[in-house]
Amino acid sequence: MDLKLVEEPKIITELPGPKAKKLLEQRNNNLPVGVSQLTSTFIEKAQGAVIEDVDGNVFLDFAGGIGVMNIGHSNLEVVAAVKEQAEKYFHTCSMVVNYESYIKLAEKLNEVTPGNFKKKTFFVNSGAEAVENAIKIARKYTGRTEIVVFNGAFHGRTLMTMTLTSKVKPYKLGFGPFAPGIHRMYFPYCYRCPLGLEKNNCNMQCVKLFDDFFIEEVAPEEIAAIIIEPILGESGFIIPPDEYIIQLRSICDKYGIVLIADEVQTGFCRTGKMFASQYWSVYPDIITTAKSVGSGLPIAGITGKAEIMDATHSGGLGGTFGGNPLACVAGLKVIEIMQRDNFCDKANSIGKICIDRLNAMKEKYKIIGDVRGRGAMIAMELVKDRQTKEPAKEETTKIINECWKNGLLLLSAGTRGNTIRFLMPLVVTEKQLINGLEVLERAIKTVV
């Protein structure tokens, strides 16, 4: 079966199916319970925006490996590039024997990331590693120690990035003590303004909180970096006002603070631009990337102003597998395809269809409190009551499970667990997209 031609899901067994049940038992016997699972689906193969499981059930994939498969599953050009590289060599470690693909991918990221200044890039394996290294560099460059992060942030699960991450359950519970030198600031979550204000007449009071923050929490002269997601990912795809970022950039410039944009989930055309920070009229000093650049192979990048990136001493940066040759050739091919085939336009088209349809659902179902997004990074926040905005966490879980039973893979998000997020591959066809949204609406109707 050519999965690219499949337009709608097809469930032919109970879920999980008989083969999946056996694998599930094997999984439970061999994996720790701390490794969570959204579904009991076991993949057999995938193409584009479609997954077939080991029992022959076919799903529309609106999760995309948590935002990794922007290019789509099993892109033939990427597969060919990786196969060609695999026949030459798998690994040398870039710090021991150089290889051209590492240099070319660094050059390409320096070219496509926003900022009209000279940049430099190096590679690690994951988004968490990228964030760790960005903070190392900022501390080295400034000679300062303190880091400011935001409520609702998710930056990873290592000690440093877990400290940066805001949500306690499940990411931090029982794993302390945490890394020192981290300070947390309000994120401008306009749907749930922490100051109880309305977006249109708030006069950006959330920025003015920095005045007291610098007096009561940490002196700006001690801050090495402020790190922010251009759109909060795990906390529910929350978009800060552009004016907030402009004023944040001014604060960083005033006090010599490095501004880091974590683009791990927002990067590579997801938001309708190659990077979400391109929506701003100002630029971050360092950008971290991962997820979709490798088309599923583990690679992450740290790209920043050359003078900042060069502040570290020789040997201070690196890692055995960082910028693996297979991942580098995949990354080069991914960017080539995205630029050639106008993936930003694809994301914006997906976004328009989804936002229009979700807003139409909002008119019919009171459980939908907010619909938001940029490009194909879209979220729908569910509430028990639109006035109180009490989170509808249980209903969110039920809706996602109902979608899975009917062949649509979706993810939740939000610190309150009441947001459904959409991360479908950007190669999803219009028919697949519409059929997936039909499954979602039927699930909402069933649950509420």
TrEMBL record:
> Which PANTHER family does its entry note?
AMINOTRANSFERASE CLASS III, LEUCINE_METHIONINE RACEMASE
Q: Name the chain's protein.
A: Gamma-aminobutyrate:alpha-ketoglutarate aminotransferase
Tell me which UniProt keywords the record has, alphabetically. Aminotransferase, Pyridoxal phosphate, Transferase
SUPFAM superfamilies in the record:
PLP-dependent transferases
Please cite one Gene Ontology biological process associated with this protein.
Answer: gamma-aminobutyric acid metabolic process
Needed cofactors, names only, are: pyridoxal 5'-phosphate
Please give the family membership noted in the entry: Belongs to the class-III pyridoxal-phosphate-dependent aminotransferase family.
Any idea of its EC number?
Answer: 2.6.1.19
Q: Which organism is it from?
A: Desulfurella amilsii
**Pfam families, per the entry:** Aminotran_3 (PF00202)
Q: Name one GO molecular function term.
A: pyridoxal phosphate binding
